[in-house]
Amino acid sequence: MKALIVCVSVSHGNTWKVADAMGRVLDASVVAPEDVDPGELAGYDLVGIGSGIFRMAFHPRLRDFVQGLPRREEERPDAFVFSTSGLPEAPFRPYTRPLVRVLEEKGFPVVGAFSCRAWDTWAPFKPVGGIRKGRPDEDDLAEARLFARGVRARFGSAT
After folding, report:
1. Please, which residues have CB within 8 angstroms of residue 116's CB and are 6 or more apart in sequence?
2. Which end of the chain is more exposed for a tag (fewer CB within 10 A), N or C?
3. 65 Cβ contact partners less than 8 Å away, ≥ 6 residues apart
4. Which tens digit of pLDDT belongs to each residue from 114-146?
5. Are 82 and 114 in contact (CB under 8 A)?
6. What does the alpha-carbon distance between residue 84 and residue 111 come to, in Å, rounded to a whole number?
7. CATH number of the domain encompassing residue 8
8. Count of domains in the chain?
9. Strand 29-31 with 110-117, pairing
């Protein structure tokens, strides 16, 4: 199985830590959207797409990357999405589903989603030093590795 993880991690490196944990299980490189040619994705079996959550949405660079993927009828790699955030996804404004929908419209079968809490110093939390300091912690990273093992098992090579 050939895998790649596309990640935007800007505030504290939270999302990159999660991407790296998954990447080690999947034997996948972790790259920024600017460092991958969208045409190269066809050469992979699995692509992870993730970022931190900003104003209840994936990072604009990641959304722009996904929006810019060409729509093709040919077979696409499986995909999964992942995120880190200080707060859980709000039912009144989901952020995972819109990204999944765009990936599916582009022809990517989405096989799962992963999210965990992370240190968040967004404006209202900044005066008190943020929330969820110390996250993602080792338990979160263990959950990320477990998620990646489950995704990898779909390809018949669980580790």
Report:
1. 18, 84, 135, 136, 140, 143, 144
2. C
3. 6, 33, 38, 49
4. 988 775 656 665 566 665 676 689 999 999 999
5. yes
6. 18
7. 3.40.50.360
8. 1
9. unpaired
Q: Are 50 and 18 in contact (CB under 8 A)?
A: yes
Quick check: 157 and 1 in contact, CB under 8 A?
A: yes
159 in any annotated domain: no
pLDDT of residue 158: 43
Which burial class, exposed, middle or buried, applies to 124 when counting CB atoms under 10 A from its CB (0-12, 13-18, 19+)? Answer: exposed
Sequence length of the chain is 159
Residue 111 included in any domain: yes
Structural domain that includes position 68 = 3-153
Question: Taking the CA atoms of the chain, what radius of gyration do you get in angstroms?
Answer: 15
Is 127 inside any structural domain? yes
User: Which helix (H) or strand (E) is 10 found in, with range?
Assistant: none
Q: What is the pLDDT of residues 74-100, one digit of tens each?
A: 778 999 999 988 666 777 777 889 999
Q: What is the average pLDDT across 52-68?
A: 90
Instruction: Tell me what pLDDT residue 127 has.
Output: 61
Q: How many CB atoms lie within 10 A of CB 95?
A: 21
Cβ contact 62:98 at 8 Å? no
